[in-house]
Amino acid sequence: MSNRTPEHAGWYLDEYDGPRFWEHVNFRGGQPYLSDPIARIGADAGECWVWQGWTSNGYGRFRAFGSGVTAHRIGFQEFGGKVTADQDIDHLCRNIACVRHSHLEAVTHAENVARGSRALATHCKHGHEYTEANTIEQVRAGSKFRRCRACLVESRQRTYQRRKARAV
Ligand SMILES: [Zn+2]
Ligand SMILES: [Zn+2]
């Protein structure tokens, strides 16, 4: 069996479990997040590393240290990522089978739930619908965000009105 462990991995699993884990990963998982308006990474984040082993509810599972652990949690920690027991790992690429550390971020459970509900939101907090025409995608620090165009226009108009009022 060839060792498919990527360079710089090996922070979490030992020399026995490491190769066993990485043998189940397809490093050419493509960039499905590029067509996902809610994904929070840009094209420079590279391909998803897709788990092809045991899964449960769509999430990869791997037996290590005597129990089943989610595969993305291992992928994150294999590159030195720090996650506490009460933190979740958020998929910035929204591809739940992905185990690539740079597509993952450790967040509090509350933040993860909030992100999930924002991601599912069909309307901005002011009630404008996130249609294709009304949605502006922005990439900041490598993460993608949705912004409401109607809100942006309104805030620009408010700024303009304020400036005009002051100028008079
Ligand atoms: Zn990914
Ligand atoms: Zn809005």
From TrEMBL:
<keyword id="KW-0540">Nuclease</keyword>
<feature type="domain" description="HNH nuclease">
    <location>
        <begin position="71"/>
        <end position="113"/>
    </location>
</feature>
<protein>
    <submittedName>
        <fullName>HNH endonuclease</fullName>
    </submittedName>
</protein>
<dbReference type="InterPro" id="IPR003615">
    <property type="entry name" value="HNH_nuc"/>
</dbReference>
<dbReference type="Pfam" id="PF13392">
    <property type="entry name" value="HNH_3"/>
</dbReference>
<dbReference type="GO" id="GO:0004519">
    <property type="term" value="F:endonuclease activity"/>
</dbReference>
<keyword id="KW-0255">Endonuclease</keyword>
<keyword id="KW-0378">Hydrolase</keyword>
<dbReference type="InterPro" id="IPR044925">
    <property type="entry name" value="His-Me_finger_sf"/>
</dbReference>
